[in-house]
Amino acid sequence: MHRLVLLGLNHSTAPLAVREKLAFNAAQQREALAAFQEKFPGSEAVLLSTCNRVELYAVTVTNNSPTADEVLTFLATLRGVDPEQFREHLYRKADRLAVGHLFNVASSLDSMVLGESQILGQVREAYDVAREMNTAGALLNPLFQRAIAVGKQVMTETSIGSGKLSVASVAVDYAKRIFDHFDDKTVLNIGAGEMATLVLRNFADLKLGKLLLCNRDPAKAMKLAEEFGGEAASFDRLDEHLIAADIVVTSTGASEPIITRSRFEKLLRPRRYKPIFIIDIALPRDVEASIEKLENVYLYNLDHLQQVVSTTQSQRKEAVDAARKIVGDHVHDFIAWHRQRQLGPLIDALYRRYHGLAQEELNRTLNKLPNIGEAEKAHLEELTRRIVNKLLHDPIRLLKHSDPQHGPPAQYMHAMEKLFGLEEGGDNS
Amino acid sequence: MPTTGQLALLILSIALFAIGGTLSVARTWWDKAIVRLVAKHCVYWGLTSAVAVLIWHSSLRARWLPLDDNFDALIWLGILLTLFVLYVQATRPIVGIDFFLMPVVVLLLIAAAVFGRHKPHVYVVRTWDWVHRASAYGGAVAFAVAGAVGAMYLITNARLRRKNGKPGILFGSLERLEHLTRISVTLGFALLTIGLITGMIIFLQRDPESRLGAHWFLNPTVLLAFCVWVIYALVLHAPINPTFRGRKAAMLSILGFVLMIATIVAVQYMPAGGGH
Predict the structure, then answer these.
(1) Does pTM top 0.90 for this prediction?
(2) Domain closes at, from A161, A179, A212
(3) In whole angstroms, how far apart are CA A174 and each of A198, A203, A308?
(4) Which CATH number covers residue A66?
(5) How far is CA A388 from CA A31, A101, A133, A356, B77, in A?
(6) pLDDT of A28-66, one tens digit each?
(7) Could you tell me if A199 and A181 lie in one domain?
(8) Would residue A51 show up in a list of annotated catalytic residues for this protein?
(9) Residue A206 is part of which domain span?
(10) At a CB cut-off of 8 Å and minimum separation 6, what does A369 contact?
(11) Does the residue A33 lie in any domain?
């Protein structure tokens, strides 16, 4: 029997320092899913890893394996960290709650920035990777397809996505609190992350003095330079660029900070201690946190910017309520559909077994009544059919409307199989 | 010496400025059009009253040269500061500058009401006296602006570092505040330097036999003024030594302004001519 299990952490349960240790990039996600499949054959899994969350949706197949603990150990081992570091930050959800959570995530109702559309793309990407790795199966395929559809519906049918602040616009707003004008300022972009592109797009409106685009891959730097009308800058001369820069936007995929305190401290004098605004939107972070203690250095990471953005959320209660209703309806529908799908074969087996038994008994009786006519025979057949249907009506109704608060459908189904002898081969008896 | 009527008008001006300032601060939580309108009218009528006191005071003395006595000089300072605030808010507004400068205006007018009733010192008898007074008080206005803007810089800087998502009232960018501090300090420093030099000249003219020895330098007014001069010299030093920019410059500007106020107060209690 299949059971959906979710294990994860997000911006509200874990600080950036914890999240970044468990984060997976696209290549690591593939490796993780391959390893998961190898360790838990037959189970399904989708790994969603974004700046704000790391979540593994798994479907257990036999003996409730993998358990949440097994999933935690698996993830921690994969990232080479102690599982105890994460335990207190994790949430575990199953079945209906896990479905509801995923739909909320896809609809950005669980995002730090309510109404942001980026998460929907990230859910889709996570699902695509799982499909590519063949780890999404009978349950996760329809679940993620439904989640993406729900996310789209919420975005189009509610105003949750409008009138919001974005991380990019908050970054620009903070830059305006530090600098008065930008026509003599140099903005340095390191890396080519999607969020960084959004930030740069917002900065471009300020008529910047100079825009330097720095990347380990010169071709990528050149491409961005063409897009934003800046100059491609060599990654090898990063220190020189940092001396010139007034604003730094960094979003590389480096696993270690590329701007350390010791590195930047040496640049303060050549920079003549001029203020610098560093926007670190990389995960793991590109800039050592202790840099913010230096004079005239203003370091903002994703959490800082999103915290500001989240203050606007209370103003959109109406849209949020509408979105929650859509999500709630879809959760109900999906659970009903899924239960129906799970119950179908069971109900079918139940009917077949008891109608078979009734037919056997009817035939035995008919053999003892040789003079019975066709009309009477039909009446008796109809009678036994109705009796079986009436007898099965209550247990099937109960099964169809089983209350998940008192036990998951799987438990009801297991009980039915035991009570009515429907276990393997049971319907042949 | 101001008359009772002049003092009454001055108190009205103080009250209007105080109400206007309080309403401006109240707008942070209660930003209604009516509050804004009343606050603006209070400041305008407070300014009008202060100018009226000056005119009345000068017409009674039949002397129209400003900065003729404490009463006159401190009201002038208040008016200049108010005009500066109104000018900034009309051209390139800096939210919150009135929060910091209007209380200084109120204090200056209160000081005028208190010190203006004292028996005046030997007042303007020579051109040097007037130049000294004008430069010293002009410098004080510039340093008041530098101190207020410095405080705004520190608050903005602290908020940016706190990163708690609650920005509060936005005081303008750090760059703009720093620029304004530097301009005010540069102007104030130049005026203070003139004030110190003319003070020295006045001292020598009054007592040609004396020399600028320790007794002159250890005079509290001279010593405080010199401290202020050194502090602002450090602030102006920033382009050469950039470690003095930003937060340090803002803190020094505030310290300098406090010392400047102390100097002005010290002058009021010095024996006649001691501070000149």
Answers:
(1) no
(2) A161
(3) 15, 11, 10
(4) 3.30.460.30
(5) 53, 41, 46, 10, 102
(6) 889 999 999 888 888 899 999 988 899 999 988 766 677
(7) yes
(8) yes
(9) 167-310
(10) none
(11) yes
